[in-house]
Amino acid sequence: MPARTTSAGSAEQEPTHSAAVNPVQVINTQPMRRMQKVAVAITIVLNALDGIDVMSISFAGPGLSAEWGIDRSVLGIVLAMELLGMAAGSILFGGVADRIGRRPMILISLLAMSAGMLLCATAGGVVDLSVYRVLVGLGMGGMLSSINAMAAEYANDPRRDLCVALMGIGYPLGAVLGGVAAVLLLQHGDWRSVFLFGGVAAAILIPVVVLWLPESLHFICKRRQPDALERANAILTRMGHPNAAELPAAQTKPRSGYSDILQSGSVRMMITFAAIYFLHMTTFYFILKWVPKIVVDMGFVESSAAGVLVWANVGGIVGGAIVGLLAQRFGLRRMVVAMLIGSTMAVIFFGRSEADLILMTVIVTLAGFFSTGGLIGMYAIIARAFPTQTRATSTGFVAGVGRGGAVIAPIVAGYLFTNGIGLSSVAALMGAGSAIGAILLLTIRLAPMRPDYQLR
Predict the structure, then answer these.
(1) pTM surpassing 0.90?
(2) Which SS3 state, helix, strand or coil, does residue 346 take?
(3) 19-250 shares its CATH topology with 253-446
(4) Cβ pair 199, 82 in contact under 8 A
(5) Residues 82-106: pLDDT tens digits?
(6) Topology adopted by domain 19-250
(7) How far apart are CA 385 and CA 161, in angstroms?
(8) How many angstroms separate the Cα of 354 from the Cα of each of 34, 86, 239, 366?
């Protein structure tokens, strides 16, 4: 039955079946209800855990280095362990999320992250801590691929880009909040309290997901279990949407994960996306990892350097929001290309800036704006480019390979600095990654958001 109009002129949906509508069409075409907005909000908070953890190890590093008597090279290995775990988790568990569901994968990831962070607080040496950081990274990798898919699949068509972008800004938001929390905790405790905070935060989110984040309707319809329509209608009823009378048309050979990508001819596109992500991350992580050291080397105190990095994350929050809000008007690809080029320019300008704290803060804020905006836009493009049965797998692979750029960028920059290459030249070389990524993005043929009710 169609929506009826109230005397105030607003549409009110009748809770009846419609033979022409299936559950995914309801989600794609109907206005977003409160429960859908809550689901997207939960993905934002879940992504914030990544930012919180990045700041936790950054703030805990000096304390544990002093207590254990380790130098920067050893600490660098510990810092890399989480990124390696995250890369492995993204590649491995994205496919798992496309088989067992987004919600179970999110819960498994939360358990791994909570356990890993709490164990970090008990670590007695570098080996223990490295193992626990890998566990945290594995959980984060599985989380990222699942929440990107979940945010895309609980949004309707007009709001999909915005919802994925909002999910993405959870990272810089968590980095800002995590930095503030770490400063407060370290005033009254040692580095262990920072990890305890992260572990408890992850544990608290487990019942939140259980209670308020249902499984993706796209996934339920794709898997086509015997009770799929009943489960889908139960979720639609909770949301306040009309029930559906049928499931989407079934695939001849339902597949998921890497096997479907190989058979669908999407391998080239997925590899290209991974290359773009990798290149952009070399630019992005040059800013994240080297800005504090560069600012201190210019003669400023460490607290000032930390403040500059916080502003990079503030810029990232604004950049992600701008991409989500303006993507419908100006086109998502155009927005992301502009952000990637802006990222390159900001890093080059940073390399040529004078030792002026205010000027450097402004430039780094712009670098965060463009870099994070481009990264978040990539998530939205991936959600558009791949169908339900491979969305988590594709996101996981792209993010996993891309994290290699995060690992390599600080090492390459350090090697260049050690060999006497100046800041302006290093910044130009590291900033080039985003510009090359923008060129590659222009070579990809992108279709509009796939009609997932056909489950192609």
Answers:
(1) no
(2) helix
(3) yes
(4) no
(5) 888 888 898 888 888 888 999 999 9
(6) Growth Hormone; Chain: A; (1.20.1250)
(7) 12
(8) 49, 36, 55, 16
- What residue segments make up the domains of the chain, in order of their start? 19-250, 253-446
d(CA 44, CA 379): 13
**Cβ contacts of residue 295 below 8 Å, gap of 6+?**
304, 305, 308, 357, 360
**Residues 246-283 pLDDT 10s:** 888 766 455 555 666 665 557 888 899 999 999 999 99
CA dist 409 and 282 (Å) reads: 5
Q: Which residues pair with 11 in a beta bridge?
A: 5
Name the architecture of domain 253-446: Up-down Bundle (1.20)
* CA proximity to 440, closest of 400, 414, 402: 402
- Block residue for tokens 């569901």: 101
Q: Over the stretch 298-340, which tens digit does the pLDDT of each residue have?
A: 888 767 777 788 899 999 999 999 998 888 788 889 999 999 9
Q: What angle do CA 162, 386, 384 make, to 5 degrees?
A: 25
